Amino acid sequence: MLTAKRLLVVAGLLLGLILAGSGVSADDERSIIVASTTSTANSGLFDALLPRFTEETGIAVHIVAVGTGQAFRIAKAGDADVLLVHDEKAGEAFVAEGFGAERRRVMYNDFVIVGSAEDPAGLRGMHDAPAAIAKIAETKALFASRGDDSGTNRAELRLWQETGTDPKHASGAWYREAGSGMGATLNTASGLDAYALTDRGTWVSFGNKGNLEILVEGDKRLFNQYGIIVVNPDRFPHVKAADARRFMTWLTADEGQAAIAAYRVDGQQLFFPNYLAPGS
């Protein structure tokens, strides 16, 4: 797996090649770096939002799409201006520890458990997520985990914790850790006819569903909140705080929230805006 530092080097090289081809130097470009989840990238949301933001503000946005845990590590090294992630408790701790200047809720969707149509563990129609994955462990049915410290992986591990089961004891047997993003993990699940936990946004936009279908949904414990955080310029003076705040403000103002609500794949809304201004 690529480390955060290697990912940044690759991203920098690609950006340099793009800028060189366009005749624009990195110093001339007004831009910010956003460390975000693979789910927002895989779903196509950024492709719909960012051109509108850049056209309005002149600020280019460069996305480093990694798991939530890795996104936090990148930001804690001062290598991003903004975080857009889905682990609310970790986001609050990031601000409390002085790494973030401000955090806002932006949008939500939910997680679902998918699996093969044959459904060997008998999960279809269940609305109790911990009970569902407990049945996976009981039957030793194949389960594909991201295994990458992402927000989705953290949510999955919280469900396992509620069951009192440590699936890592079965790592390499019925519990398969992909160590990769959501799309790649779904590819693994599709190839193995395995169960998996996925955010709904990535699932709807995923093109290689194969024999997989949604089997478990509707549990309040599958709620998936996304938040945006401006990295603290007091801790990292090089952070482009003004432009980072402009991005945060745009996403949480009427235009950005409407753009999030309007984004659809195959007629389905993937994300639901829920910023609530203080005092509202």
What would a concise description of this structure say?
42% of the residues lie in helices and 22% in strands.
Topology:
Blueprint: H1 4-22, E1 31-36, H2 38-42, H3 45-57, E2 60-65, H4 68-76, E3 82-85, H5 88-96, E4 100-116, H6 129-139, E5 143-145, H7 151-163, E6 175-177, H8 182-192, E7 196-199, H9 200-205, E8 212-216, E9 223-231, H10 241-252, H11 254-262, E10 264-265, E11 268-269, E12 272-273
Parallel strand pairs: 1-2, 1-3, 5-6
Antiparallel strand pairs: 3-9, 4-7, 4-8, 4-9, 4-12, 10-11
Helix-strand topology string: HEHHEHEHEHEHEHEHEEHHEEE
Structural class, from helix and strand content?
alpha/beta
* The CATH class of the largest domain: Alpha Beta
- Largest sheet composition: 8 strands, mixed
Q: What is the total tally of β strands?
A: 12
Output the radius of gyration.
19 Å
The CATH architecture of the largest domain would be: 3-Layer(aba) Sandwich
Per DSSP, the total helix count is 11
Write the CATH homologous superfamily of the largest domain. Periplasmic binding protein-like II
What structural keywords apply?
single chain, 280 residues, alpha/beta, D-Maltodextrin-Binding Protein, domain 2, 2 domains, eight-stranded mixed β-sheet, two-stranded parallel ribbon, 11 helices, 12 strands
